[in-house]
Amino acid sequence: MKERSKKKLSDKVPFFFSLQLKYAMSYLAILAVVLMLLNTYPVLASQELQFTSKRDALKNQTAVMASALMELEVPAADQVARVMTKLDNRDLDRILVTDSSGLVLYDSLEQVEDGEERPCRYALLQEVVSALRGNDVFWTSFENGRFVSVASAPIIYRGVTTGAICVYEVDAAQGALLVSLQQNLRTISIIIALTALLLSALFSRVMTGRISALLKAIRIVGEGEYGHRLNPAGRDELAHLAEEFNQLTDRLQTTEEVRRRFVADASHELKTPLAAIRLLTDSIEQNPQMDQDTVRDFVGDIGEEAQRLTRITEHLLLLTRLDSQREVEAHPVEVNQVIQRAVSMLTPVADSAGVTLKTDLRPGIVILCTEDEYYQVCFNLIENAIKYNRPEGQVVISTVRDSDQMVMEVADTGLGIPEEDMPKVFNRFYRVDKARSRAAGGTGLGLSIVRDTVRRHGGWVSVRRRHPEGSVFAVGFPLYEAPEKGADEL
């Protein structure tokens, strides 16, 4: 079992299933989305801005040239050439002018000398055909690091399309700027990605390191080392979790100490009557010539020890039930009736001990409890007051209303309890005077039963010295107020 526990304690989560990798991957996934947007949106926005700028510029230039050619009723090649020569078209890479049939009248890429006949050539281009149909055309694209733009417009003379003009522009300078922007963004993205990779690995390692420390601490505590503690660092949720873990281990350690002490005390308390019974029975068996009076005395002692063993067992079972029960079906209990019943049951015990029982009960007090459990509280307190009293002493049981609660006090005239022992008298198996407690037949569990029972019903219990002598045990319960009847129930 120990080998298995050590193996489990030393096991490590595989890296591919670890939280460190998951944290790092989540950071990188978010970073990848951000870098993707960084590398696409600025480029697309710049392209769209250039497209808009090119469209407006080329359309204006095309409109100006078309307006200049509108004065020609029937465009001729030499007339078109003279008009185009007068216009400033140095920014354009090509200008193409055709007549209404698509015959090329002017092409800035062709060098035709004066007197030389222009070759007969038709411009079978989509943008020219569309312009001859009376439509304005524009398109642009970004190819091989350049902006290629085309614009065409019809030439209209008195409502009749007499030709078409088409201009072309290839802008390598703006394309180079866009390519440079892409490269810069790519370089920045690589630097950010490497930096984020290192930081995410560092942060995830720090984060998962604290979680691993918590997991290791849980395993250590699971092995029974309740003294192990974590050192909370920071003010985040993990620090609060470490503090909660330390508080939990404190409670576990306290519970374990109480359990061990309880088991040790219970074993000791049960061993004492069993040892006495074994000693007495051995004495009877080893002395066959023992006279009947001695045997009768030994048998009586065995019966007393058996009764004591029975009381201890019953009290242990009752405490076990109190520990295991969480919900209680309580109901209104009339306090005075239960106290009077307990006093009646204990009057013979008080008479035999020479103790007088007195009551000072306020009428009409009702609490929310169970009658049996409240009877157990009253019986244990009054019985203790009788057992640890002096001859010709007295026990006074009183009840009072205090705001929204009922307080019952049981005062005796015994030797009292030292101040240093008062906080401990409600602990299980604790006795102020062990020899006297055993002689009185006590088990050391009665006051523990009182405390646990009272707390389960939202009450409290305390003890204080009584002047000039004795002790006063006080028990408080919330008062029960009956619900008011409605008008239809009156």
Describe it.
The protein is of the alpha+beta class and 490 residues long. The protein folds into three domains: 1-220, Beta-Lactamase, CATH 3.30.450; 238-324, Helix Hairpins; 331-478, 2-Layer Sandwich (Heat Shock Protein 90), CATH 3.30.565. It is 54% helix and 17% strand. The chain has helices spanning 2-10, 19-69, 77-86, 126-132, 172-222, 237-286, 292-324, 335-353, 371-387, 434-439, 446-456; strands at 94-99, 104-107, 137-143, 146-157, 160-171, 331-334, 356-360, 366-369, 394-402, 405-412, 460-465, 471-478. A five-stranded antiparallel β-sheet has the order 2-1-5-4-3, with helices on both faces. A five-stranded mixed β-sheet has the order 7-9-10-12-11, covered by helices on one side. A two-stranded antiparallel ribbon has the order 6-8. A hairpin with a 2-residue loop joins β4 (146-157) and β5. α8 runs parallel beside α9 and α9 (371-387) runs antiparallel to α11 (446-456). It is rod-shaped. The protein starts with a helix and ends in a 12-residue tail after the last strand. The relative contact order is 0.07. Residues 1-10, 434-441 and 486-490 have low confidence and may be disordered.
